[in-house]
Amino acid sequence: MIVTTADKPVTLPAEWRDFLALTKPRVMSLVVFTGLCGMLAAPVPIHPVLGFTAILCIALGAGAAGALNMWYEADLDAQMKRTAKRPLPSGRMDRQSALHFGVGLAVFSVVLMELAINAVAATILAISILFYVLVYTVWLKRRTPQNIVIGGAAGAFPPLIGWAAATGSVAWLPFLMFTLVFLWTPPHFWALALFVKTDYANAGVPMLPVVAGERTTRHQIGLYTIPMAAAAVAPWPLGLTGALYGVASIAATAVFALFAAQVSLRTTQADDRMRPEKRLFAYSILYLFFMFGALVADHWLA
Fold first, then answer.
1. What is the predicted pLDDT for the residue at 145?
2. Which Gene3D superfamilies does this UniProt record tie to the protein (predicted)?
């Protein structure tokens, strides 16, 4: 933080709240939850202390990725209304502090996962951090409207990490959960992009609504919902889950598909407040929490 005295500007250390903000705690909550559910749905129980450690590592890894994302995109954040108050663009923290914080968290989370849990979980955690930072943030974000499509894999790793923490391996069920999150990401973020399109346009970020227009974006939301729905329901007919998850997944996905269809098939009016898009975006977050909660409930109650 920089304050001005009568003599000269004085640089003060950032507050703990600023470092917490760097980790994107709202995004982290969903990452931690899906990772926890992947662990709890695994066929092998894990000691509570080790389980807590694994989830801590996932949280720290996600926080590291968020901090490095904010470090690299400080210039973009300064140009967008919804991100301008973040620690770096608002001047409450210098970029070097954010970089050191992000790298430190990343290294610590992977090393701790390796030493306390197992190499498989640590490797996937490292891949997820590097994918989010290097592939999505550095390579894709500013270059292609497919940034969310490919970059969505970064947020899909936690179920695999949680499962691997418990079992030391991966299997078809966590892979399908990875696929669900991967295919869920484009409709989720494109719904957001539709009603914050001006922000992305001002910052020069080639999000799909900016590059291809709203009509194409709406159609893509509808198209991506189809394979997402298949991935969501697939564990039941494949015999990987029971009827509890099957029924819950069909019901929740049907609502998602309804909201997605409302967005996909409508036209935008001049005075439109984007209510269907905001409804889809809000529901999509609850949807993922519900789906993974149903997965754990099915495992423990079946």
1. 86
2. UbiA prenyltransferase
Return the pLDDT at 272.
62
Backbone angles phi, psi at 10, to 5 degrees: -120, 130
**Positions in the chain whose pLDDT score sits under 70:** 1-13, 268-272
The token duo for 285 is 């977050």
Q: What is the pTM of this model?
A: 0.90
> Is-contact 206 143, C-beta < 8 A?
yes
Residue in 66, 217, 232, 96 with CA at minimum distance from that of residue 146: 217
Cα–Cα distance, 55 to 191 (Å, whole number): 29
Q: Rounded CA gap, 225 and 235, in Å?
A: 17
**pLDDT value, residue 81:** 83
What are 96-154's pLDDT values in tens digits? 999 999 999 999 999 999 999 999 999 999 999 999 999 999 998 888 888 888 888 88
